[in-house]
């Protein structure tokens, strides 16, 4: 009986220890800004989103960002309506966009030491239900226990089935928009 | 003579048309954002109720709460404050989540309503009104439960 309980306690400690170490490798970001910018000769359009949630596993370099699409805010209300509508991002049917990938050359990043680390990331970006492979540059800043990730890349709208062939949107919205991501991470 | 009269009417009609059209374009372009706080509340729920509803069936909950044009349902959510933080836009964010609940309701305030949120403390029970941006679900890639997200929030009732 004693033996069994010792084994049981040992097993429980093992499980707890494992869960603990896994948690420890995972950084969670609930403070973020995702901005997109469209530039044409007609106008500049910008929208900001502060609602995304992300994680980074500091051991494996895997990262994820989940972006609630209705959280994008435009200065002009009508643009926001168009953005959400089914011929643009159809946010009711596809409420979240996601980027999921891996930091390459993770060994060059020391999450315990202050510094700015330029990295490359590769992964999959899913917008409006369409998934494409992406390779982008990012920078990781470690400063007094806080980890910041910043990246800026271009997205070709037609790749995700968002295309305007006629009318005002075809002239006013760029074919390629710039997306800027900034996330602040802390231990879960 | 008759021809001239017809022409006159046509020109007048064209001008009226242009004026109405122009006014409509100006109106649409300057149309204000929906004022959440002065709009009618669509649903009154507790934080646990809406989380459970989303976790039970995300798709039908999205169908119920999200709108095609992004002007989704306006909710008044009552819950216990679990965490208070600030986003990159300097907006206060209140997480309402019951102990033992898998997910909660995250409510972002605005420049105008931040002062009301600043009065709140962790552990208090509050009712917060805002517009829903997305629902709760378990995300396999994040390995986390995502919270329900409300924005443009203000405090409606504070209990102690």
Give your account of this protein's structure.
The complex is a heterodimer of chains A (188) and B (160). By secondary structure, chain A is α+β, with helices and mostly antiparallel strands. Chain A has a single domain, classed as Lipid/polyisoprenoid-binding, YceI-like (Lipocalin, Beta Barrel), CATH 2.40.128.110. Chain A is built from 3 helices and 10 strands, in the order αβββββαββββαβ. Chain B has 160 residues and is of the alpha+beta class. Chain B has 2 domains: 31 residues; 117 residues, Beta Barrel (OB fold (Dihydrolipoamide Acetyltransferase, E2P)), CATH 2.40.50. In chain B, 32% of the residues lie in helices and 34% in strands. Chain B is built from 4 helices and 8 strands, in the order αβααβββαββββ. The longest helix of chain B is centred in the first third of the chain and has 29 residues. Chain B is elongated, with a radius of gyration of 23 Å. Classes of the chains: A alpha+beta (188), B alpha+beta (160). Chains A and B meet through strand 1, strand 3, strand 4, helix 2 and strand 6 of A and loops of B.
Write the layout of secondary structure elements.
The complex is a heterodimer of chains A (188) and B (160).
Chain A: H1 2-25, E1 26-39, E2 44-49, E3 53-57, E4 62-68, E5 73-74, H2 77-84, E6 96-104, E7 115-127, E8 130-143, E9 146-156, H3 167-172, E10 176-187
Antiparallel strand pairs in A: 1-2, 1-3, 1-10, 2-5, 3-4, 4-6, 6-7, 7-8, 8-9, 9-10
Chain B: H1 2-30, E1 43-46, H2 47-56, H3 58-65, E2 74-86, E3 92-96, E4 105-108, H4 114-117, E5 125-134, E6 137-139, E7 144-146, E8 148-159
Parallel strand pairs in B: 1-2, 4-8
Antiparallel strand pairs in B: 2-3, 2-5, 3-4, 5-8, 6-7
Helix pairs in contact in B: 2-3
């Amino acid at each position: 009986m004693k033996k069994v309980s010792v084994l049981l306690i040992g097993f429980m400690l093992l499980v707890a220890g494992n869960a603990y170490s896994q948690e420890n490798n995972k950084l969670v970001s609930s403070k973020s800004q995702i901005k997109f910018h469209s530039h044409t000769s007609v106008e500049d359009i910008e929208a900001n989103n502060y609602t995304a949630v992300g994680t980074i596993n500091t051991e494996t370099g895997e990262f994820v960002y989940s972006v609630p699409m209705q959280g994008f805010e435009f200065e002009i209300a009508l643009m926001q309506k168009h953005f959400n509508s089914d011929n643009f991002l159809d946010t009711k049917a596809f409420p979240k966009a996601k980027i999921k990938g891996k930091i390459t050359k993770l060994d060059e990043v020391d999450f315990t030491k202050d510094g700015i680390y330029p990295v490359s990331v590769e992964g999959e970006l899913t917008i409006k239900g369409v998934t494409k492979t992406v390779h982008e540059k990012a920078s990781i800043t470690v400063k007094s226990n806080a980890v910041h990730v910043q990246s800026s890349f271009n997205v070709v709208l037609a790749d995700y089935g968002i295309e305007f062939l006629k009318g005002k949107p075809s002239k006013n919205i760029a074919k390629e928009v710039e997306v800027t991501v900034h996330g602040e991470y802390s231990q879960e | 003579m008759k021809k001239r009269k017809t022409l006159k009417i046509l020109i007048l009609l064209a001008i009226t048309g242009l004026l109405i059209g122009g006014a409509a374009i100006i109106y649409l372009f300057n149309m204000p954002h929906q004022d959440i706080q002065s709009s009618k509340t669509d649903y009154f729920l507790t934080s646990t109720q809406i989380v459970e509803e989303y976790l039970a069936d995300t798709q039908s909950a999205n169908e119920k709460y999200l709108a095609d044009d992004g002007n989704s349902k306006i909710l008044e959510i009552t819950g216990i404050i679990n965490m208070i933080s600030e986003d990159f836009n300097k907006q206060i964010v209140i997480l309402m989540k019951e102990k033992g609940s898998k997910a909660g309701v995250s409510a972002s305030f605005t420049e105008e309503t931040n002062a009301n949120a600043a009065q709140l403390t962790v552990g208090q029970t509050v009712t917060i009104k805002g517009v829903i941006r997305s629902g709760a679900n378990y995300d396999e890639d994040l390995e986390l439960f995502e919270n329900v997200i409300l924005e443009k929030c203000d405090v409606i009732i504070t209990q102690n």
